[in-house]
Amino acid sequence: MDSSHPQRTSSNQKRKAQDSIMVFSKHAEFMETYHRQNFSMPDSVIFYVAKNPKTSALYLKMIKTCKYFFVKNSIIVIDCLDTHRGKWRINKKPLDLTKYNCKYWITDKIHAPAFEFVNRNIFSSIISKLYRCDVKCLELFFQVVSFNDLSLLIPSAEKIYLRNVSVKKCDSIIPLEDIVAIAVKAKEISVDKPTITPKTMKKLSELPNFKKLDNLTLRNLSEVFDIDEFHGYMKKNFHTKFYLYFDEQISNAFKNRLETIVDEILETKEFNYKPPIISFIALDIQKYGKLYQIFSFH
Prior knowledge:
The protein is of the alpha/beta class. The chain is 36% helix and 25% strand. The protein is built from 10 helices and 12 strands.
């Protein structure tokens, strides 16, 4: 199709050439005014400071004070990184993160749906360019991400939302408990179609950071989830609000077990634990309404 529009192709090539010239021109202009500095402290100390900024705010102050720090450690600080129509954006402005010879420091949020990407492992091309990730909110949708990459993105996040996300290590899909284990600062986690095993709930209950969660939402849970292990944990849980939504394909026997737990909660007069939301396709709407009311007041 491009060959049938030579003028359009020529225009695009010209625009790209102009952009490249502009970037080169700005870089050249920047370097023209950069001069070697005479610091009062030893060069080795200044070099260490340049290479090891403690916070993004400190780094920004440093490079505003002296260009030396940017030349020695070129980092672009980003508060919000997201994707739109298959392309990366910074604060809703398109930017090719692979284009520039620098690192990126993300400080606030990553919102990354990948359903418009051909390759849904969208971090693979930029992960090597991340200097540091301090995001408080991590939202990933419709993608495949390696466990190693996720380990760089998730540790600082307080709010984590994963929708149709597969986390892989080599060729194996990582279960939910391994993801929660590295989400050490998380206060709220929501996962759609989590990968679980019969031991997932038991392993979760053994994680110190799991007990500190304010909210955990799991959607499209299969009956592989050990509901009896959860029931035991539920009766000792004083902190976390659980939202459990089960898949439509669960068996009648499993539905009966869920309803038994729901009935127990509805019949309880005084709670010394946090009652959860438990939802499945066969649950009577009036029971769900009462359960939600109890949940809301505790």
